[in-house]
Amino acid sequence: MPGSMSKLGGLANGLLACSRTGTLSNQVRGVVHKSLLKLPSEHPEPWDYKHKGFNYIDGLKDDTQAHLHQNSKLIVIEGNIGSGKTTLAKQLADQLGFVHIPEFRMDDILIDRYGNDLRNYYSKFPARYRLPDMSMFYKNPRGELSAAMQDRIFNCRFDQYLNALAHILNTGQGVVLERTPHSDFVFANAMRDKNYIGHEYFKHYYFVRKNALPQLHFWPHLVVYLNTPTNKCLENIKRRGNTDEIAVVDERYLKTIEESYKDSLREYRNHSKILAYDWTKPGDTDAVVEDIERLDLDFFEWHSGDVMEEWNTIVDSIGWNGWRQYVTNKFDARMLAFDGIPKHEVGELYTNPRDTGHFLHVMRKEVLKSPFGYGYIAKNGDHQAGITAWHTGHHLPEPWYEYYFREAYYDDLTSHETSLDLDSDSYDPDYVHHHH
Amino acid sequence: MADSTRVSEKELERREGFIRAGRRERHLIDPFTWSYPWKGAGAMLGISVAALYLQNRWNKKPYYYAIVPRLILVGAATAVGYAAGALREKHYQTRDAVIEHYMQLHPEDFDHFNDRSGRSFSQVLLPWYPRRTQYTRYD
């Protein structure tokens, strides 16, 4: 039986990348340790998507399938807080020759390219724009902006997942990713359970999630779930020594996450392979690598479930290039996922337009000290980039951005005050002290 | 016809010449004296450059943002404006030529144009007798 399966797998494979490597076409060879990965001499150099992006013209020059090989896989590490994900993910990426994308943190979007930490300007921002990072959240979990933070985290995880896909399709290198937008709801559940976020936003979260996840199209090849008992997680969290975190992340919080992960895995099961480990005592990475090597992550046939379907139903190089543009550009995906969702009934996400105006004033007068946006400020050392800019979706000089909400959002933000006052001459620093 | 309404031939020539398109002397600073193609090109160029400036300001961008593709677009828009003006000029020239040709062929249809001062109002208006309704008898 395994023999015939592998023949079929090889057939499905032959339609894809590995048909070039003659010796591999008759047998399935899944993910291997980096020392065993033999790439043919004509294997192309990785495409520098972070600097060049990937557009229609690039699609004529660079073939996506030529980049893909047996290790071009997306592996996701899931687990509770303090379960030991990061340690495993790093070692796994190291052994397999994958790139390790650590879990998204708010710090990734709160510090801009000039090194400005927006948190240093929070006293000048209107309250709605003081988005908490994790340590602020742990200090004041019942704050008004916990929902806004969770909303932003989901949004950025969406971007991060697209980054992982873009890395695979542009370079052929596999990715080990910690947590995904698919499993992000475990935190929404835990925060709702502790009443950190309200009912309105909780409903809104699931509505957005339902709208957004299909736009990611690809599911992970493999989900590695580290099942660590909550008391063990608590020990690890105590060892980290963050007193605020210890106060917020209690037994009940972790239990909710653990229970929610059961739902998450049930959902993953329809699309991905799953390896679940009892991680009470941190296991051996070598053993995990061996387990991964034994898995067949290339097999798919019609009418036998949806596992690996998205990866194996793209029929030609035009299809691959299309998806590669989609995940690299992110504009279409973000638009389909997040645009047009009404949130006027979600009080926790409401933003007073006057606050937006003041935020823009502060950005121009205090943070960037320029009427221009990111990448176009000469006195900060920006060269005259973007004179041939021809991309859609954002106005940054570079064709590719990591997170929309790091810098690209700033160009899209407008308000009545600032539209009539392009140099922010009407900036009133005392706005934050006024009664609104 | 009362002499007060009559003007000299010279004055008539001046008036006609002033009103006719393209007869005014060209001034670089007065777009209303330009030819149609240059009017069209100038209008499109002005609108494009103004739009470009406002677009940059609105989107927090310096003048050089995407300037290469944008200048190409501005050039294309200006060319379209020039072509539209040329088309307009051509249209009016053709129309005038057709009418003049017809007037040459049928001068008898245009006799009334020879009397350039036209009729006086006494020849235009019908006689009028003041009759007021409130004095009308309805028996």
Automatic annotation (TrEMBL), chain A:
Compartments, as annotated in UniProt = Mitochondrion matrix
Q: What SUPFAM superfamilies does the database record attribute to this sequence?
A: P-loop containing nucleoside triphosphate hydrolases
Keyword Manganese attributed? no
Note the Pfam families from the entry: dNK
Q: Which PANTHER family does the record match to this protein?
A: DEOXYNUCLEOSIDE KINASE, NADH DEHYDROGENASE [UBIQUINONE] 1 ALPHA SUBCOMPLEX SUBUNIT 10, MITOCHONDRIAL
Superkingdom, natural source: Eukaryota
Function, as annotated: Accessory subunit of the mitochondrial membrane respiratory chain NADH dehydrogenase (Complex I), that is believed not to be involved in catalysis. Complex I functions in the transfer of electrons from NADH to the respiratory chain. The immediate electron acceptor for the enzyme is believed to be ubiquinone.
Q: What is this protein called?
A: NADH dehydrogenase [ubiquinone] 1 alpha subcomplex subunit 10, mitochondrial
The UniProt similarity line reads:
Belongs to the complex I NDUFA10 subunit family.
Q: Which cofactor does it need?
A: FAD
Alphabetized, the UniProt keywords read:
Electron transport, FAD, Flavoprotein, Mitochondrion, Respiratory chain, Transit peptide, Transport
Per the database record, which ranges form the Deoxynucleoside kinase domain?
75-315
Automatic annotation (TrEMBL), chain B:
State what protein this is by name. Answer: NADH dehydrogenase [ubiquinone] 1 subunit C2
The UniProt entry, under InterPro entries, shows: NDUC2
- Residue intervals passing through the bilayer: 36-54, 63-85
What taxonomic classification does the UniProt entry list for its organism? Eukaryota, Metazoa, Ecdysozoa, Nematoda, Chromadorea
Organism expressing this protein natively: Caenorhabditis remanei
Which PANTHER family does the protein's record reference?
A: NADH DEHYDROGENASE [UBIQUINONE] 1 SUBUNIT C2-RELATED (PTHR13099:SF0), NADH-UBIQUINONE OXIDOREDUCTASE SUBUNIT B14.5B (PTHR13099)
Subcellular location, principal = mitochondrion
Classify the protein's membrane topology as the record does: Single-pass membrane protein
Ordered alphabetically, the record's keywords are: Electron transport, Membrane, Mitochondrion, Mitochondrion inner membrane, Respiratory chain, Transmembrane, Transmembrane helix, Transport
